[in-house]
Design a protein that fits this description.
The protein is an alpha+beta fold. It contains two helices and ten strands, in the order H-H-E-E-E-E-E-E-E-E-E-E. It folds into two domains: 44 residues; 130 residues, Beta Barrel (AOC barrel-like), CATH 2.40.480.10.
């Protein structure tokens, strides 16, 4: 049998392999990136659960006041027929938009946000309204029918931030004055 042995001259002339090939390095880098990505995701999940959720965990109430900042009334030009009789100037379909500043309740009220309320006149003496209350830690969304602005109740249909997924009621009581002021009582459930 003939065996070929490499002489020292041939060994010196041959390229030396000192590490992994280009393909091996690429596979190693992809694995390293995947490992770092998975570790980062695990860290984010751990930090998120350690800090806790920033939403209500039990029923609660919010007591604040508001002051009317702006009221816009849009009268829709229309002619309405009710039971076959033509009526002019029906309020049905008229729009009202309210912007209110929100304040803490107390001897020295502090402005903590605002609200926007949009109402459509039903033509039956009431208005169908939806609104959003912008508070420091999130928003509360409401909706329902208002027959009188002196005292009314709307459903709390959701929220964001601290008020994420809340339900409940908003009871509004007029405090009078010019501009109009109201007391707001949110009864919230999660």
């Amino acid at each position: 049998m003939f065996r070929h042995t490499t002489s020292s001259v041939e060994a010196a002339a041959a390229p030396r392999r000192t590490g992994p090939s280009t393909g091996e390095r690429r596979v190693f880098m992809i694995g390293r990136i995947a490992l770092l990505t998975a570790a980062g995701a695990a860290l984010l999940i751990a930090v998120g659960s350690a800090t806790g959720s920033q939403s209500l965990t039990a029923p609660g109430t919010v007591r604040i006041t508001d002051k009317l900042v702006k009221h816009i009334h849009v009268a829709v030009d229309k002619h309405v027929t009710v039971h076959g009789t033509a009526k002019k100037d029906s309020p049905a379909g008229d729009l009202d938009f309210y912007r209110q500043a929100l304040f803490t309740k107390g001897p020295k009220p502090v402005n903590i946000g605002h609200s926007d309320l949009s109402c459509v006149d039903t033509g039956t003496g009431s208005s169908s309204c939806t609104g959003t209350y912008f508070l420091p830690k999130g928003k509360i969304m409401v909706g329902g029918v208002i027959a009188s602005r002196l005292i009314y109740e709307l459903a709390v249909v959701g929220g964001t931030g601290l008020y994420d997924n809340v339900r409940g009621t908003l009871t509004v009581t007029s405090l009078g004055g010019v501009p109009a002021r109201e007391f707001l009582l949110f009864r919230l459930e999660v």
